[in-house]
Amino acid sequence: MTYCLGWKSKTAAFLIADSAVTKRIAITEDKKLLQESSFGEKQGQMNTGKYVYERTLKLNSVNKIAITFAGDADFGGNFVSLIKDNLDYGINIKTAIQYSINNYIVDP
Q1: Under DSSP, is residue 35 helix (H, G, I), strand (E, B) or coil?
Q2: Where are the alpha helices (DSSP H) in 1-108?
Q3: What pLDDT was estimated at residue 28?
Q4: How far apart are CA 101 and CA 99, in angstroms?
């Protein structure tokens, strides 16, 4: 489970997020994976049968805009790339996010 937290002060803004991903199958290229994350949490197969790895940055900086996400890491990375592409075309951030959302089918 991912938690992302953000807050601001009069002089700065802060965002934090974890780097763990959950997969249904083992990530085979991580043969030398440590047994514990940098926070001392277990990595690898969990009791649920799923695998958890410290592997993905969920905090991104795009065109001087910070974006963090919770959920599927592949989706999050693609979504951030779409926002970046829209910003590169000169679209403002609010519209860039909306255009990126519109690329996905949402069931009502």
Answers
A1: coil
A2: 73-88, 93-101
A3: 63
A4: 5
- Let me know if 47 is exposed, middle or buried by CB neighbors in 10 A (0-12, 13-18, 19+): exposed
Side-chain-side CA neighbours of residue 81 (13 Å) = 6
Structure tokens at 96: 């860039």
C-alpha–C-alpha distance, residues 6 and 25, integer Å:
31
Q: Is the pLDDT of residue 88 over 90?
A: yes
Task: Yes or no: say if 49 and 28 are a contact pair by the CB < 8 Å rule.
Answer: no
Cβ atoms within 10 Å of 106's Cβ, excluding its own: 6
Whether the model pTM is above 0.70: no
Decide if pLDDT at 31 tops 60. Answer: no
The residue behind tokens 């990595």 is: 43
Among 100, 88, 98, which Cα is nearest to 64's?
88
Nearest CA to 54 among 64, 62, 44?
44
Chain position carrying tokens 């979504």 = 79
Q: Are 72 and 80 in contact (CB under 8 A)?
A: no
